[in-house]
């Protein structure tokens, strides 16, 4: 499937994590079938896939009441699944999963990456996983009120903090005056990507026709790999480049580098 950047690029700007949903407003059959199709067709890496689960999302998200980002009343779930034998599985799952998240956003459906606090056994029960596959993260789906609910506004600490670092803290390499025109919007798109605990664990080195993405060694993995966040940022860079008429490609690199996008 080609990246539908005309609808996914604006979704990068409007997406925000939503954790509380309207239980009286299930997703329509049309929306569900559209999301299912995107899950089936957006498979850019063999080691990553997304599945739509329409049964019992309450079991997947009932992990710890009142913990970081308590999820209330989701009506369906996305499961982000990876072949854990593969070295770049985290990046691949981040990239692939974010595609479906942006499709949901474009359809007006609320989402939230959840990798820390969910019940993987409850998710696995509703999926056919191969022995080498694991559910690395999930997202609740549902309709959220236009305004954040009081419960969402009352979130504490990192779950609430949508602030992003300025580009100047994240970028090295060529000075900005020498950047090609597609570079800055691509970096802006990566900068506003979601990351676990909003840690923004990415660093970018700019060369004439490329962006090299690396892990910030100062950030800890905790329970969730920084490479998952970086995979999400990779998709944002590529969507923005396509929106600037630049068709490039990613090459994975050895740690602590992640990958280089060049054309
Ligand atoms: C890989 C990943 C894992 C996340 N895990 C959780 C989680 O377990 N619980 C939660 O409430 N939010 C989780 N989040 C959402 C982040 O807290 C959120 O993306 C970040 O605070 C930025 O806010 P925004 O998504 O509204 O831009 C996760 C995000 C990512 C990308």
**Quick one: how many beta strands?**
8
Total of helices? 8
What small molecules does this complex bind?
flavin mononucleotide
Which quaternary structure do these chains form? Answer: single chain
Strand content: 15-25%
- Derived structural class: alpha+beta
- Name given to the CATH homologous superfamily of the largest domain: NADH Oxidase
Mean pLDDT: 91
Shape: globular
Helix content: 25-40%
CATH class of the largest domain: Alpha Beta
The name of the CATH architecture of the largest domain is: 3-Layer(aba) Sandwich
What is the string of helix and strand elements? HHEHEHHEHEHEEHEE
Can you tell me the CATH topology of the largest domain? NADH Oxidase
Distance between the termini: 20 Å
Kindly list the characteristics that best describe this protein:
alpha+beta, NADH Oxidase, five-stranded mixed β-sheet, binds flavin mononucleotide
Structure description:
The structure is a single chain. By secondary structure, this protein is an alpha+beta fold. The chain folds into two domains: 5-153, NADH Oxidase (3-Layer(aba) Sandwich); 167-262, 3-Layer(aba) Sandwich (NADH Oxidase). It is 32% helix and 18% strand. The chain is built from eight helices and eight strands, in the order ααβαβααβαβαββαββ. The strands form two sheets. The chain has a five-stranded mixed beta sheet with strand order 4-5-6-8-7. A three-stranded antiparallel beta sheet has the order 1-2-3. Helix 2 runs antiparallel to helix 4 (89-106), helix 4 packs across helix 8 (226-243) and helix 7 (183-191) runs antiparallel to helix 8. It is globular. The structure holds flavin mononucleotide. Flavin mononucleotide (FMN) binds next to helix 8.
């Amino acid at each position: 499937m080609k990246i539908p950047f005309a609808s996914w690029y604006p979704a990068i700007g409007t997406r925000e994590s939503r954790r509380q949903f309207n239980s009286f407003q299930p997703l329509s059959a049309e929306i569900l079938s559209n999301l299912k199709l995107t899950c089936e067709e957006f498979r850019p890496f063999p080691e990553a896939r997304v599945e739509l689960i329409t049964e019992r999302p309450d079991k997947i998200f009932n992990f710890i009441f009142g913990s970081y980002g308590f999820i209330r009343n989701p009506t369906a779930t996305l499961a982000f699944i990876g072949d854990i034998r593969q070295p770049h599985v985290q990046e691949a799952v981040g990239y692939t999963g974010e595609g479906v998240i942006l499709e949901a956003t474009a359809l007006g459906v609320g989402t939230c990456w959840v990798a820390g606090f969910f019940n993987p056994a409850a998710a696995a029960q509703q999926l056919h996983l191969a022995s080498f596959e694991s559910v690395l993260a999930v997202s609740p789906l549902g309709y959220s009120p236009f305004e954040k609910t009081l419960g969402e506004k009352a979130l504490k600490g990192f779950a609430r903090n949508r602030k992003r670092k300025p580009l100047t803290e994240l970028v090295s390499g060529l000075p900005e005056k020498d950047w090609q025109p597609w570079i800055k919007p691509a970096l802006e798109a990566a900068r506003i990507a979601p990351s676990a605990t909003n840690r923004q664990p990415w660093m970018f080195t700019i060369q004439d026709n490329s962006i090299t993405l690396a892990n910030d060694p100062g950030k800890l993995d905790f329970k969730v790999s920084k490479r998952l966040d970086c995979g999400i940022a990779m998709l944002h860079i590529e969507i923005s480049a396509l929106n600037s008429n630049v068709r490039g490609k990613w090459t994975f690199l050895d740690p602590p580098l992640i990958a280089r996008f060049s054309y």
